[in-house]
Write a structure and sequence with these properties.
Elements (H helix, E strand, L loop, with lengths): L6 H30 L3 H26 L5 H33 L1 H5 L1 H24 L1 H9 L8 H60 L25 H30 L5 H23 L7 H21 L2 H8 L8 H34 L6 H57 L3 H17 L7 H4 L13
Amino acid sequence: MSLARQPWFAGMLLLSSGAAALVYQTTWFREFRLMFGTSTYATAAVLAIFMAGLGAGSAILGRVADRKAAPLAWYGILELGIALSAALSPLLLLGARQLYIALGGAVTLGLPLATLVRLALTVLVLGLPTFLMGGTLPAAARAVETAGDRGRRHLALLYGMNTLGAVAGVLLATFILLEAFGNRKTLMLAVLLNVAVAFVAIAVGRSEGERAGGAPSAGPSLRSGPPSPPRGGGEGSSKPVLIAAGVVGFVFFLMELVWYRMLAPLLGGTTFTFGLILAMALLGIGLGGAAYAFWSGSKRPTAGTFALTCAIEALAIIVPFALGDRLAVFTNLLRPLAMFGFAGDVIGWSIVTAVVVLPAAFISGVQFPILVALLGEGREDVGRHVGAAYAWNTAGAIAGALAGGFGLLPLLGAPGAWRLAAVVLVLLGIVAAAVAFRRRAWVSAGASLVIGLAAVACLTFTGPTAAWRHTGIGAGRTPLPD
């Protein structure tokens, strides 16, 4: 099996490019906050464009990847395009800032028109690099997937490593690079890393394409065994699978907003809070994807498998809610770690965040490759399937961010939105379990219903009270109880 088709090799490339991508994202968000301010509307506009670019690129470029004779070289070309467009972004940001100031900002334009201007300027700066980013995972998956990989575990490995790279990127940017080098130098360091990844991928990918004579080939899967003929399509129509991808994206992004709102008092409400929550969510997703790659076995996942993940994720989301103020007490018990300085604070914050975020994020990381495997198996149309699932998942995430920030959190409050997220996952799990029952998958369907009932039972708990939500526990302003 050539180097270009080795999952571990492509995974290391994606690990590096994932780190670069999150350094870009963290830096760009800081720049836009300086330009547009820190209001919810300004942040939502930037986030929506960033996610929309990823989704559009995944959907369109995923189809292109399936037609490439040397998909790893195509991945390298995309990475080179990302690096070049990111290198130009400081100039574009400067022009956008001057134009926004000349227009007078929200004070002169009013909120509706100012929001439209922010969206347009964000597209100008982030449109091309985020569009290209969306096409990288489908291209890499096309390079390493094989006909015998029925569960698409190679894709899961790439997805997990790419996300773990993103964890490294957000932590490095938040805690080290931006503090040491500032925005522009940090951005250029990420550009250099991206360029290195691009040239390695192009060189290895083109040599593989020349040896193969432009014809696609199939190598062995993660585990030995004869390849089975590729078959497209999942357990029925692809539309229900894609809708499910959108729903889980909606729920997870809504929960990110809830976690940020609810954990801010526990973590002290510092500038590091968002970065830490994002890193922990990405860590869970990455570990979940890697776990699926190595532990899922040779069988293809079913609707019952997906139903189980929905029920388990719902339970993982709602259990920290059911713990209520016990988490606040737990946070206070960790305060003596502050004796070790800032590092002690970070350790304490990380433990609390892991308890709340990591279990649900882990299951979310398992879900995505399951959804892609429900669309098809092996190498056939893998780029298109990855692109479509990622696009729907991203569309759901955008809807979750906008609906959560502008509607659900103001209407229901953070605890109410927390409950809603678990309810939506339980309902989705029931629908998937009904499909599994029709296909006689009694065990997985029954287990998902039992776990779903446990999640529903946790909804009856009081949840966090004002003792948690309206005091500076994590900041050390609340005294420990006697």
